[in-house]
Recover the amino acids of this structure.
């Protein structure tokens, strides 16, 4: 029998994309809410409890409310919001996180989909902490460049406003989260193995999608004797055999057309590309993804596939 799936918030940026991923699949029966009733708690409760798998593509408060409406113990929830990413009882929806993560995703009924910046940060950092190259108590700084679709419908509307309504300040890259308490910092620390939250500083630019987190590392602050070759080897070994993660060659010149890095290079894929650039003193680990692919909707569908045990047969 087909798996019944309901996407709560299916008219939003993340929800629409999940629908696109699932619409053609013969093993999925999509339960669709009448558009006029999409915020009606009673109708949502009916569908939330009728589904085998539910994707929550809602603001945090509405996601918590949706979870409270679910009484069916068989319903598996995949929450795209920030609400449950470090909450007890929830499994982090990053199958590549650790050797036992897929088993945890199969066993649970509560999956918290990672944030887009956090996915990139954690996939770059966790293997280096696990291997002891980055000390667990290191003070880490990271930045991210992202397309504006990461800000959802309201930010998309600002960037795609008609000429007379368009704010020309949006033409330049815009650093944000300068309170230095970005909402992804708690999950970055909780799932990377670091004791302290990183100092994280994102920048949004005038392009629809694509994201790259950069992790600058002083070799002198790492385990004594650490080389860029070791950093690269640890990442390559950790992700060998992962179909959605690619580790590019050390100091990959081919990725730098004219000396510039392309943050949109993973768009329309569910892939993460990892890079290590280095000098004698410093290394820069970079993780690139599509913020609407592996950074959101693609990751959510991948977690569902793992949960259902069809991640090899049916893909993205
Ligand atoms: N965009 C991205 O790259 C990513 C987003 N996320 C997370 O996913 C979630 C959704 O984000 P995104 O798709 O960008 O947001 P959008 O603003 O694009 O969409 C949110 C949707 O939720 C609907 N909604 C709001 N409140 C309710 C409610 N009480 N009941 C039912 N529906 C409601 C909205 O309705 P209406 O159509 O009326 O506005 C809208 O369709 C957020 O928690 C976000 O943090 C996660 C990873 C990446
Ligand atoms: C450009 C922009 O604003 N991006 C969002 C990230 C979107 C995302 O992945 O985060 P959540 O799932 O946690 O919403 C931000 O930095 O807050």
């Amino acid at each position: 029998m087909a798996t019944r799936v309901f996407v709560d918030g299916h008219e939003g940026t993340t929800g629409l994309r999940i629908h696109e991923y699932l619409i053609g699949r013969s093993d999925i029966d999509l339960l669709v809410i009448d558009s006029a009733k999409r915020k009606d708690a009673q109708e949502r409760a009916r569908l939330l409890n009728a589904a085998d798998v539910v994707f929550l593509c809602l603001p945090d408060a509405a996601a918590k409310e949706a979870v409270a409406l679910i009484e069916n113990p068989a319903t598996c929830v995949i929450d795209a919001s920030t609400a449950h990413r470090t909450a007890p009882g929830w499994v982090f929806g990053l199958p590549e996180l650790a050797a036992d993560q897929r088993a945890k995703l199969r066993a649970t009924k509560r999956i918290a989909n990672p944030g887009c910046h956090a996915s990139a940060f954690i996939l770059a950092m966790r293997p280096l902490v696990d291997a002891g190259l980055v000390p667990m108590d290191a003070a880490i700084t990271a930045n991210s460049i992202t397309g504006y679709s990461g800000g959802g419908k309201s930010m998309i509307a600002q960037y795609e406003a008609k000429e007379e309504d368009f704010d020309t300040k949006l033409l330049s890259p815009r650093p944000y989260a300068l309170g230095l308490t970005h909402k992804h910092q708690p999950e970055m620390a909780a799932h990377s193995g670091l004791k302290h939250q990183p100092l994280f500083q994102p920048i949004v630019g005038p392009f629809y999608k694509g994201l790259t987190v950069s992790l600058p590392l002083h070799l002198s602050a790492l385990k004594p004797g650490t080389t860029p070759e070791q950093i690269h080897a640890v990442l390559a070994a950790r992700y060998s055999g992962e179909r959605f993660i690619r580790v590019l060659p050390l100091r990959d010149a081919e990725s730098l057309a004219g000396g510039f890095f392309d943050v949109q290079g993973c768009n329309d894929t569910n892939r993460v590309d990892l890079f290590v650039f280095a000098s004698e003193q410093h290394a820069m680990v970079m993780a690139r993804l599509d913020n609407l692919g592996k950074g959101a909707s693609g990751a959510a569908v991948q977690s569902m596939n793992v949960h259902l045990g069809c991640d090899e047969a049916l893909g993205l």
